[in-house]
Each structure stands twice: as C-alpha cells, then as structure tokens.
TrEMBL record:
GO terms for cellular component: plasma membrane. It holds the Pfam family MFS_1. Its main location: membrane. The keyword tRNA-binding does not apply. This is MFS transporter. It comes from Arthrobacter yangruifuii. It is a multi-pass membrane protein. One of its GO terms (molecular function) is transmembrane transporter activity.
Length: 436
C-alpha cells in the first residue's frame, strides 16, 4: 500500500481553505452540468425538431467519452502532473461551447451537427475534469479527511443536480433559451475562478517509463523520434491501471461491486418508467415527482455515509447496503398488492434506493487514493471508471430487450438480484475489514 504518497497541503494555506475553493468549484461545475443536461435535449427536440434517436445519441456521448478516452486522459493527467490546470481547461472548454451554442442559436445557425459537436466537446471536457478532480481531492485533504471530503462533495453534487434541473426550468420559462445557455457558461466560468484558490503541494515525480526494446536512442540516451517509447509506455500504463485493480483485493472487490450496482441501477432506470407509467398507469406528474425523492435520498445517503462507515466499518456497510437494496427494489415489484396507494410504496422504493446507492458510492471512495501511488491515481481511477461505467449501456440495452420479450416484472427481479449480488465481492474480501 502506498501510504506515503499523499502530502499535506501547502504551508500557509490550510486544508480547510483549499477545500472550500474545491467545494465551491464543484458546486458551480455541478450546476453547470445540470443546466447542460437539461438544455441539450430541449435544443434538439423543441428548437431543431429532432427525434428520440438523436436525443439518445446525445445522451450516449458522455458515457462514450469515458469509455473511449478515460484511460488515455488518466495517463496524460498523471504524466503532466498538473491536475488543477487540466480542470481549468475543461471548465473553460465547456464555457466556450455553451457560449458558441448561444451565439449559434441567436444567429440562427444552430444545426444537428453543431449540437452533436457541442455534446462531444462537453463529454471530452467532462472526462478531463473528472479525471483531474479525482487526483486533486487527496492532495487537498490528506488521507485523514478523505471520507468526509468525498461525502461533502457527493452532497454538493446531488444538491446542485436537483437545484440545477429546477433552475433550468425556471430560467427557460422566465428568461428564455439563450440566457439559459449563458447561465450554464457562467457557472463553468465561476468554477474556473474558484479553482484558482486551490493550492497544491508538489508531489513525487512520476517514474519515467523504460524505453521499449528496439527503439533508437536519441540525445542523452533518450528514445529518438523513430522510437516506440511513448505509445508503448502509454499502452503499458493503461494495462497497468487495470492490473492495479486486478491485483489489489480491496480495489477488485469494490470495482466488481460497483459494476453490479450500476448494472442493476441501469436495469431499473430502463424498466421502471415503463412499469410505472404503462403497467401501473401512474400519472406522469407523479412519476416525475419520484425523481425529487431520489435526489433527496441520494443527498441523505451521501451525508450519512461517513458516520455509518465509521460506526460499522466499510465492509459491513457496503455489504448491508447492497443486501438492503433487494427489499428496496421489491417494494416496486409488490407495490400493487401491498396495502395502501401504489404511489406511496413507489415513493418509498425511490427514496430508499437513492439513499443506498449514494451510501455505496461514497463509502469506499477513499480506498483508491489510499492504496494507489499518487502518480498512478488518475490512470487507475480512469480504468476503474471504464469498468463501472462500461456495464451501464450494455445493461440498459439488455434490460430493454428482456422487458420486450418477457415483460417488466421479471426484469425488475433481475434488478433486485444484481443489487443483492453486489454484496458478495465486498463480503468475501477480508482486506476491506480495516477500512472504516
């Protein structure tokens, strides 16, 4: 374990001050993200008259960017060693993209191609920001503050996501689409300004990769232009990121558990709307209100995770939260036969599931920076996100096909099965016992 890799924050700039700037940047970034997620589909459908296929492509660009670019960006962030600069560049890129969209809308030049290009650039910037941000948090708070820091950042993320979605509707209704885009650009600009207050110590330099056999040395013994050092070194570092997950029992268990939880969540997100709106004939307004309860549950889970982890230990908490996910999902399955209104049981299911998923997301987030050297943190974190996010589109597609073939209720049972199965990797890994 690389316990000596994390450093204290710079002298004269205590962790609390830098973390306040980091949290403020995260709040501004989250607000901008929420506005952006709201505005892109509206532009596609309401302004350009495009259909659901195009909206699906827009929504897929974010996950596709993480899957295709995540590890490469992680390697680049580790190599450059300037995560704050990477975060700032990503925020400025998203700010510029939204300003360009506002100008195109104002001048009547907005097209589907322009909107798709904007979604791609926003997705790339999201990968860069998320990857760099994951390496900044440990350097700002140190090992002792990781659990509470991740909890506070998760609370901020969930709160700004809910608030930003509501603000998007209000801005659109009162002011109009161009100013909604400007508001999003302003949020990203504010994030960039807050990032300037984050102070980081220097970290140990990343060890240089060995030259690849057969490459021609250049001056001072370095590989020349015709050598294979950089591509080969990048491939080795990418493989090393996945190998670190495989060789660490704690990281392997947490990654596998997260993959199962995310797969279950995507199964639920795919099938639950059909089950609630079509099979149960619940009003669309009532279904939309469930999203608010999900956000509230997530805020509560993120806030409670450090306390629960400290009292129960990480392994017991993650195992328990996964097992409790099974009855939580079954509340939706049996809502039509349980006493009382169906919507009451659906509300309870949504609230509890949001709470449990947030607990699982926050509890254990500090394990990665504790067991991975800092100069490899972005690469290993990107490899982990590639796996945990990679299962989501596949789970969504398979769930949709399964629901079309056998109906929604059997697929809801699959959701419950995946939720419970997420407990097994954690419960069977003894190396997680010391973590709290």
């Amino acid at each position: 374990m690389a316990t000596g890799q994390l450093h204290h924050t710079a002298e004269g700039n205590p962790p609390g001050r830098s973390f306040r700037f980091l949290a403020s940047a995260a709040a501004a970034e989250g607000f901008g993200d929420a506005l952006t997620r709201a505005v892109l589909p509206i532009l596609a459908v309401a302004v350009l008259g495009l259909g659901p296929a195009f909206v699906g492509i827009l929504n897929a660009t974010g996950i596709a960017a993480f899957l295709l670019l995540g590890v490469g960006v992680g390697i680049a962030v580790d190599r450059a060693g300037k995560p704050r600069a990477a975060m700032g560049a990503a925020s400025l890129l998203r700010c510029g993209v939204l300003l360009a969209l506002a100008a195109a809308l104002w001048r009547g030049g907005l097209t589907g191609g322009v909107l798709f290009a904007a979604a791609v650039l926003i997705g790339v910037a999201d990968v860069v920001f998320t990857t760099a941000h994951s390496t900044v948090v440990p350097r700002v708070v140190g090992q002792g503050g990781l659990r509470r820091a991740y909890s506070r950042l998760a609370v901020i993320n969930q709160t700004t996501a809910a608030g930003g979605a509501g603000a998007a509707g209000a801005i659109l209704a009162v002011i109009g689409m161009p100013l909604l885009l400007l508001a999003g650009a302003g949020a990203y600009a504010a994030s960039c300004l807050f990032q300037r207050g984050i102070r980081l110590d220097d970290v140990e330099p990343r060890p240089e990769a060995e030259p690849v056999a057969g490459s021609k040395p250049g001056p001072a013994g370095k590989p020349g232009p015709g050598g294979q050092r950089r591509p080969a070194a990048a491939r080795r570092r990418a493989r090393g990121g996945f190998a670190s997950l495989r060789h660490s029992p704690a990281l392997r268990a947490l990654t596998l558990s997260a993959c199962l939880t995310n797969a279950g969540a995507m199964v639920g997100n795919t099938v639950l709307p059909v089950y609630v709106l079509r099979d149960l004939a619940v009003a669309p307004g009532a279904f939309a209100a469930l999203g608010v309860l999900s956000a509230l549950g997530a805020v509560g889970g993120a806030a409670a995770a450090p306390y629960l982890s400290g009292r129960m230990g990480l392994r017991a908490l993650r195992t328990g939260s996964a097992l409790l996910g099974v009855p939580a999902v079954l509340l939706a399955v049996f809502c039509s036969v349980l006493p009382g209104p169906e919507t009451a049981w659906l509300a309870a299911q949504t609230l509890v599931w949001g709470f449990l998923v947030a607990v699982a997301g926050v509890a254990g987030a500090e394990v990665l920076p504790r067991v991975v050297p800092h100069h490899e943190l972005a690469t290993v974190g990107a490899a982990q996100r590639t796996l945990t996010l990679g299962v989501m589109p596949a789970a969504a597609v398979l769930a949709g096909l399964a629901a079309a073939a056998v109906g929604t209720v059997p697929v809801l049972w699959l959701w419950a099965l995946l939720a419970g199965a997420a407990a097994l990797p954690v419960a069977c890994t003894g190396s997680l016992a010391p973590f709290r």
